[in-house]
Predict the structure.
Amino acid sequence: MATLIRLAESFFTEMGRFAMMLWRVLMWTPRPPYDWRQLFQQMQRVGVQSIPVVALTALFTGMVMALQSYRVLVRFSAEGYVGSLVGVSMVRELACVLGALMVAGRCGSAMGAELGTMRVTEQIDALEVLATDPIHYLVVPRVWATALMLPLLIAMADAVGIYGGYVVAVLMMGANPVTYASNSFQFMELNDLTSGLIKAAVFGLLIAVIGCQKGFYTRGGAAGVGRSTTQAVVLGSIAVLIADFFLTKVLF
Amino acid sequence: MSSSTAPPKIRLREIRKAFASKVVLDGVDLAIEEGESLVIIGGSGTGKSVLLKHIIGLMKPDRGTVTVDGTDLSTLGYREITGFRRRFGMAFQEGALFDSMTVAQNIAFPLERARRFDRSAVRKRVDECLGLVRLDGAEEKMPSELSGGMRRRVGFARAIALKPAILLFDEPTSGLDPVMTALLDEVILDLQRTLESTTVTITHDMTSAFRIADRIAMLHRGKIIAIGTPKELKADTDPRLLQFLEGRAEGPLSE
């Protein structure tokens, strides 16, 4: 019982911290000066530099999906629908969730560590002393860069994943390339695609706000930075998974 | 130093600050005159840095007021205090340089954020500031390539870029060799002379305290227990001050 109360308490503490940080980001976003250089730099880091990791994840997920669904579908002679199954599952669910988890590991942790180090070396205090709001300067560009770039990354991941399924089905299972390709998109609706991309944008927001929040309020030297980095990844990933359930329920 | 009738540049009244149950500042009263160099001494962990952060408004007192140029900092809104801080320059303990930027970019940062200078003016001021801290030619170095003493001097240069009326130094010489310490003391004196700024320095290095101070204040257990010119302090007989000045392990401070 006591553990349960403590668990609930820490859950609501984290929710509160998240809400406070999100609120401050929203308050500062419309205020000049607009720091485009910082925004583009972060978009480059979160978006462009995550391409290999996210593409690799999507490629193998698509390939495994094709293998698995073929083994099952062949039992009731429905192997012709492997393409449809891979396509829809990638676009609706797998690309955005697995992609977001990779980005949480790659960028959420980086934000926790970078801002955490800036905190413990007094660089964040220095920003304030130099008449610059650290939320405005550091957090706002990171949050919007991630929320903008994650949907683009996921759109790419969708394509790569479907291609991965195609390669496995055609080369290893001997599926007909033309039927497989047409099957892939036969049952796909526009809603499948957009819901996945909307989810990706929300995941991006979650990952960046949590990562920055953890880094920003780091205490206690190098050990504190380590703790922030871990928490940024763990909480970011959990937030993605929980949000995924509720978003899926609302969007479909 | 200005005449004693002028209002003090910085006035701290009854400042009290506690973290959880630990009282760090317990009723600090301090008046800092315009143009003077005040050095605050005291043992490690006596709240010297916390006091400095109150002067610049990075921390808010639980009780008491901080008045700068006649303005009570607690009456300033969040955006006002950000602008108000342009009157200050603060040099942090380890420099606190932005490690993703070059030396020149670090020093240019406050100038660019102030949006009052064109590119050539920024460039010129960066060179001037680097000259003042005797680091000409280090523009393109990254903070990680610098020694501890150089990093602090770049921190000084960044702090003075906007020619602030008040300069704060947080342990500028701790952990440096005596030669570097003497050099940094000279730089501080130089800066104070050229900018005519009010300077508050925190240190536990007595040699450099006597070198740069117009007045010295000693902080102990959250209170100012002695304040005066270096001469006055040397004549003071407070046993706690004597122990600190003489650097003895035994005495009232160790209890």
